[in-house]
Amino acid sequence: MALADRRDDFMIHDHGHGPHDHSHGEHDHTHSEPLDPALDMSVEDGDLSPGQLNRRGFLRNAGLLGAGATATVLGAGGAADAAAASSDRRSRRGGYLWLAGDHHIHTQFSPDGLYRVIDHAQHAHAFGLDWMVITDHGSIQHARIGVERVNPEIVAARREIEDLLVFQGLEWNIPAAEHGTVFVHPGRNEVAVLKQFENSYDGAVRGATANTSANETLAVTGLKWLASAVEGRRVSDALMLANHPSRKGIDSPHEIRGWRDAAPRIAIGMEGAPGHQAAAIPEPSGPGSGRGYYDSSPDPAASFPGYPLESYRTFGGFDWMTATVGGLWDSMLAEGKPWWITANSDSHVVWADTAQRGPNSNFQENGFYNDPVHQTAPLLDAGDFWPGFYSRTHVGATGFGYRQVMAGLRAGRVWVDHGSLLEALDVRLVAGGDEVPLGGVLTVRRGTPVRLRIRIRPARLPNWSQFVPRLAKVDVIRGAVTGPVRNRDSFTAPDTRVVRSYDVSGNTGLIMLDYALGRLDQGFYVRLRGSDGKQLAPGLRGAGVDPAGPALDVVGNDDPWDDLWFYTNPMWVLPSRS
Amino acid sequence: MTRPAPAVASPAGSDVATAGLDVLTARERHADELAFACAAALQNRGGHGVTVTTHQAALNEYQHVGLVVEVIGLSEEVVAEALSEVVEASGEAHHGLLVGQTYCGTIELRAVIKTMVDTHRSRTSGRVVVFPGSTTITGATTVAQLLASTTIDRIQVLGHVQADPSTPLLTRDFVRPRWSEGDLVLHVQPAIGGTLVPFETPNPTPCCADHA
After folding, report:
1. Are B153 and B185 in contact (CB under 8 A)?
2. Which residues share a beta bridge with A428?
3. Are A106 and A136 in contact, with CB atoms under 8 Å apart?
4. Residue whose C-alpha is closest to residue A78's, from A109, A42, A102, A112
5. Do A234 and A206 contact (CB within 8 A), yes or no?
6. Are A308 and A242 in contact (CB under 8 A)?
7. What is the arithmetic mean of pLDDT over A314-337?
8. Fewer CB within 10 A of the terminal residue: chain B, N end or C end?
9. How much is the pLDDT for A205?
10. Contact at 8 Å (CB) between A238 and A182?
11. Which chain B residues touch A305 with a CB distance below 8 Å?
12. Residue A112 is nearest to which of B159, B176, B208, comparing CB atoms?
């Protein structure tokens, strides 16, 4: 049925004075662009023409994205094939292989976990993920036992499911702050590096959870140590992302900025949407808590006092930092520095699953629970989904591999969705004969017209709740680049707002939107967001900023399938100095 | 939200005694227990209109929770005597109590408590555990009833939504309004069945809660 009722494609060329609708027949717009050698870091400086070298030098020196500037546009070439129209599990779009994943998953090696690595891996694979990260909680016990004992399970899962990338990581207790995913590229030192990191820098292991400046420094030192482990080639790569950043109000804005600035190639972002998305399903069918288990209030001993009470709740399943247009995330993007968002399961115990911990488990003694066994009653008070079941982080990779997933994440070629709202998305910022994908930076002369080229294919097939979600709207969010903040605890971007909202309801074919962003004056960034349109409310910074944003999720009564969103990471365009 | 005429006295008159106390607790729930003990000690001595507010406090880098107590109808001496009992009963080695200008306790805490009391007087921050009418609002009520029977000035729904005064409010026997711009404000959030519940959850999910 889903295939049969597919309608004509939907196309708008929008020049800022009202949409012009053009209905076209089936055709796909995938492009094949040659890669600018100045952006291709596999081409040595000496092999570039003076003009190309100048351009590369500028991008390097712009300071906007530092080393990441070139990485963000790397690999734009490659043959774009006709797969955009196919239902191949992995299709190249705009030159990238889009790989879905999840960087936040717990196993029987977490004190609040249950499943084997292979349980998660099999489900992740079945539900369509290409990559996943095992992130058991950091602790003295985990550093002693779990970090080593989980590795053979991960290695076995890699062997068992060949087309699933299984990273080993850990959920770092960030000193003085929340949790974060830390993970490394597989290799002979993956366990050694993770173990040394955990023993040296985990807040729980080091007794460094209290909100002190010494502990904040320890977190920064840990990130620098990870960077040095990569530079010294102990591991090929390492990344850190902040998890559930607003849950308890203890990730202050200056701490997040501090992680980003201390190790920009390691600390790359945060969960835009936390896991535990089943936690607000009402009792007795579900836990009846807050979505994401976001049901806390400010802790006077630890929380950042500036955060409003709203920040302790989710909006359309997303964390307040990301869901607020003109909020904390935007205030970081307006600085002109990369900080990416993801969406993950945080899967510990799966809602309505029929497993229980293995009998005679002794976690205290052994550092893991015995393998789970069957039970008859479904776990209705569990609040998590399997990896890939509800939350997906889509990474534009230059190929299928661990290195490429990590590079794509670092480049910010990332969009996220809930409930399989979209089948595919390709967004380009276009100006002066050049273009960049998500995460990219364009540098063009002042006065150059800039446009946004959006290609979205809404879901064609049913999701894992057995219905085909319907995309209803797409929002373009734009904000000025205002440079580094003076107050590192600031969490507003006064210039950022929704500048265009497209009603795309009823369109099931390829949605093609062209939005003219005017001639470049001050540098700016754009990002996209969209939803099924079921739960909308004016944004926290007012209807003038965000007229129909995500609504506050109702604690104890929130069906996550009835409120689906996608978010993209941003793209920037900056004036060149000449 | 239009406020009905107050049915209970608010401790704002000249005969209000104000005290600050600090036992260096980092747990808000512990501070709540102390607040109830303070209220009981003062009421036993004939005090009324008792309001106890918890405030964020910091001794050097040690962030913790302190208390500011206001009561009508008792002299500062009696207040000091009543609250000293509470502080001593807490068994905490380091503590301080400031009543009016009279201080006793750990010397380093005096400035911390003074700052907390001064901040409190601006009525712009602080979370209120005990307030006139607080014992009467249990179970289910309505927004209008809540405003009529307590010193809460207004309610504010998270996300800036407007609430009708007749909206059912399920207190869950846990009501913690906050001082905001001079008013005592109860923040509430939408809940199942078109009801409202206070923002603060009586039993929030602890970090790394075990759901297996």
Report:
1. yes
2. A453
3. yes
4. A42
5. no
6. no
7. 98
8. N
9. 97
10. yes
11. 56, 125
12. B208
Q: How far apart are CA A498 and CA A478, in angstroms?
A: 6
Q: State how beta strands A524-531 and A565-568 pair.
A: antiparallel
Instruction: Give residue-wise pLDDT tens across range A23-65.
Output: 333 333 333 333 444 554 444 555 555 555 554 554 444 333 3
Q: What is the pLDDT of residue B208?
A: 67
Instruction: Pick the residue from chain B with its C-alpha nearest to A538.
Output: B159
Contact B189 A552 (CB under 8 A): yes
The residue ranges of DSSP E strands in A432-546, in sequence order, are 434-436, 441-444, 449-458, 473-480, 497-503, 511-519, 524-531, 536-537
CA of B75, closest CA in chain A: separation in Å? 31
d(CA B135, CA B151): 12
ipTM of the complex: 0.90
Residue B86 in tokens: 């509470």
Would you list the DSSP string of A68-83?
A: HHHHHHTT--S---GG
* Alpha-carbon separation of residue A184 from A237, A274, A348, A550 (angstroms): 6, 21, 21, 34
pLDDT, tens digit (0-9, with 9 covering 90-100), for B80-107? 999 999 999 988 889 999 999 999 999 9
Q: What Cα–Cα distance (Å) separates residue A420 from each residue in A127, A386, A401?
A: 10, 14, 23
Rounded to whole angstroms, the Cα distance separating A453 from A430 reads 7
* Partner-chain contact B197 A557, CB within 8 Å: no
Q: Return the minimum-mean-pLDDT range out of A76-90, A384-398, B56-70, B71-85.
A: A76-90
